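Table S2 (text version). Query chain:
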Amino acid sequence: MVPPPLRTPRAAAWWIVPAALLVGGAATVMAWWLLSSLPPLPKAAEEATARQGAIQTALALAAGIGAAITLMLAFRRQRHQEHATHVTAYLTERNARLAEQVAEHNRQDATERRVTELYTKAVEQLGHTTAAVRLGGLYALERLAQDNPDHRQTIVNVICAYLRMPYTLPSDSTRHDPIHAVPRATVAGASALAAGHDPHEERQVRLTAQRILAEHLRDDRTLGQSTTLANSRFWEGMRVDLTGALLIDLDFAGCLTVDAWFEGTTFRGRTDFRRTAFKGDARFSGTIFERDVWFAEAIFVEDAWFTRATFEGETGFSEATFEKGVSFGGAAFTGEVNFGDVIFKGEVGFDGAAFTRDINFGDVTFKGDAYFGYATFNENVHFEKVIFEEDAWFGEATFGGDALFDDVRVLRLDNEHRWPVGWIVVRQKDGSGLLQRDDAEPSPPPAVAEDE
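Corresponding structure-token output:
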């Protein structure tokens, strides 16, 4: 409700004087008119009575006018009272709203001050020389992020920055050797790794930091569960930057991130990205996987980069989906590799990639251009039942073992292709092509129904 505009009240004389003049003037005019219109009367008594009646009539008229003015004044007074009540209610409501806003602002301000104090204290704990205190700092940051969603990305950034700090894995010879202590570094302005940290204790701190990230990036719905709403522990929309970090036995299975940066990262233990959903760019360029790594059933919504990455253990991408382009250019695979049933919806590049052990591309669908130029396959490579929907390029690729391209389908024969030496495409009745050895008997065309 909004009250009418207020105005300064006028002095009472502005209506009292005109009202008095109106009453007096009306009585005078009425008396003069009645007296002047009296006819001549034969007796003086009758004339006096007539004049008295005229004067009484004039006075009655003046009284009526005065009563009307009084009624108008009473109405005006009532309106003023209602207006005053309306204004009072409006001011009361407005003041109450202002008081609530001030209280809410004060509450938010107190909350922000409290969060800032807890955040500052937790970050300072990350730079403590005692591992238990650093662990306490991590758990304090986790609790702070869980209770304050607006601060989650900042806290994820701090944990990622901690994991990016230089660190040397412990060994039996370095358990009590201060020479291998990690150099001093900073996280968010605080000393993160003071000289003299025990590498075994620091390993536990880092494993805890990894578990905190994994737990809150894991969406139960990506694991095939029937949960319609995300778990309250899931932090949606986080960006993870672990560029150059040393990660130990990382388990990001079922996690969901917006952007993920792992360039130059070293994974020293087993690494699990199964059923992980990368909603933004996924960058693994220059990454080193020293042991087995799995990306089975992972989903890459945007572009993915594995350029010059090193895979030293078993590598699994089976049933993964790449919605856009992906590059494995210059990547080195020293263990067995499985890309079975992968769907590449965008351009994929394995230019210059090196495969030391067996590699499986069985049942893969390449919906975009596929480049294997200058790739090296030292042992057997399986491309059985692969479908190439666009260009396929194997120029200058070398094969040290068996190259199996049985039942490979090529959908666009007019596109630019470069097949491995000894393989040719034979046009089929349905217009597609079937990859066959150059010296093999042509395969019979696929059966076609009579009505076709």
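Notes on Table S2: Residues 173-195, 448-452 have pLDDT under 50 and may be disordered. Residues 17-39+50-122 form one domain.
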